[in-house]
Structure formats: structure tokens, C-alpha cells
Specification:
about 70% helix
């Protein structure tokens, strides 16, 4: 009750009906910063305000506009704020956008709640996945001189190999193996630039089993051999 009264002050009685149908910025902020319950309370006030003029329900087209704009607003807001595309969630929610057609304010509220819950779950899963990625990346960076197989990292992180492959590609933009190579070459570049250690020593310090393999990977990523790279820094 207290939450509803507090939120009511945020929606003026004279608010233009078009804004209630299309402007969901406050709901989007509430979902990301305060969670689904607050966002749902704000949506309930919006439904109450709109349906009170229509005898407890909305015309079919108006109901579809409200729910479709809510779904797309959430997608666009999270994409802009987090740089994450919840496209599958947005697509699946199109079904909810038609659930309030020809129904009461209660059914309209349920449809909106389902959309908000879907995005809240996506945010929860994404946060969990990013936490896992951060742990894996920290482990890799701390063990670059050692053998870093997917099996070993999965065991250390208490995660399945399949799960790591899935979240790595979607969140980091490359495979686990590519990431390890990239981090090793990054360290090799720093050592080539800041020390006089031999190519063989640097290869070993970056976890490569041979200087030849190191040179092959380095050239594949940097476009030149380690020796050429070092020479270019002092050229």
C-alpha cells in the first residue's frame, strides 16, 4: 500500500494518455535499479489510470500498443544502458503483448508483469554469467605460465565445459582458447617491450611450450614475429 501511494505521486492526474502508452522510461529505470516489484507497482498505476477512463478495460488496439511499447522500451533501454541485446526475450514477449486484448485491467496487469518478469530474469542470469566470466578471466591471468585447458579451468571454477563455452562466446566475443592466446600475447608484448629476455624465455613465461609455436601464434595475432615486434619498438 505504501509503495503504491508513493508511486502514485510520480504519475500526475493530468498526464497525457499518449505518454502513459509510450513513455516507459520510469518503469525501465525501476526494473534495473530497484527490481521487478517496484516496476510492477508503477505499471499497475499506469493500468489503473488508463482503464479508469474505459470502464475497467482498454480497447484491443490500445492494449496492444501499451504492452508492445513496454516490451520494446525495456529492450531498447537495457541495450543502451548495458550494451546487452535481449533480443530473444523481446521476441518471446510479443505473445504477452496480445494477452491483454479484450480482457480486464487485471489481465492487462498480468501480461505486463510477465514482460517485466522476463526481463528481470534475463538481467539476473546475465549478472550471474558475468560474475562467472570475471572469475574465469582472473584465474587465466593468474596462471598464464601454466597449462590452461578448458577442462582444468572448468574444474577450478566448478562449471561445465559446455557452459563456459556458451557464456564466453556471448559475453567476451571469442572462444575460451582464443582468449587464453590473446592474454598470453598481451603479456608477451609487454615483456618484449620492457625486458631484454630472450624469445625462448618470454615464450616460457607466457605459457608456450616452444618458441616456434609462440612465434606462430604471435605472428597470427600481431602480423609480425616477436623479434620483428621488438625491433619495431626501437626502430
Amino acid at each position: 500500500g505504501g509503495l503504491k501511494m508513493e508511486c502514485r505521486a510520480n504519475i500526475p492526474v493530468q498526464t497525457d494518455e499518449w505518454e502513459l502508452l509510450y513513455d516507459h522510461s520510469q518503469l525501465c529505470e525501476a526494473l534495473m535499479q530497484e527490481g521487478a516489484p517496484v516496476a510492477k507497482a508503477l505499471f499497475a498505476l499506469r493500468v489503473d489510470h488508463l482503464t479508469s477512463r474505459e470502464g475497467g478495460s482498454l480497447p484491443d488496439e490500445t492494449a496492444i500498443i501499451l504492452l508492445t511499447s513496454l516490451n520494446r522500451s525495456l529492450y531498447d533501454y537495457l541495450l543502451f544502458q548495458l550494451g546487452i541485446s535481449f533480443s530473444r526475450c523481446c521476441y518471446d514477449n510479443r505473445l504477452h503483448a496480445h494477452a491483454g486484448v479484450g480482457c480486464s485491467a487485471g489481465a492487462l496487469q498480468e501480461a505486463g508483469d510477465a514482460i517485466l518478469d522476463a526481463y528481470a530474469e534475463e538481467l539476473r542470469q546475465n549478472h550471474t554469467q558475468r560474475t562467472h566470466i570475471e572469475r574465469i578471466c582472473a584465474y587465466v591471468q593468474g596462471h598464464l605460465t601454466e597449462e590452461l585447458t578448458l577442462e582444468r579451468v572448468a574444474r577450478e571454477a566448478y562449471l561445465s565445459r559446455c557452459y563456459i563455452c556458451q557464456i564466453f562466446k556471448s559475453l567476451v566475443g571469442c572462444t575460451f582458447g582464443e582468449y587464453v592466446k590473446r592474454e598470453r600475447i598481451q603479456r608477451a608484448r609487454a615483456l618484449l617491450a620492457s625486458t631484454n629476455r630472450s624469445i625462448e624465455e618470454i615464450a616460457a613465461a607466457c605459457g608456450f611450450h616452444s618458441a616456434t609455436y609462440f612465434a606462430t601464434v604471435f605472428k597470427g595475432i600481431m602480423g609480425m614475429t616477436p623479434s620483428a615486434f621488438r625491433h619495431s619498438l626501437h626502430g
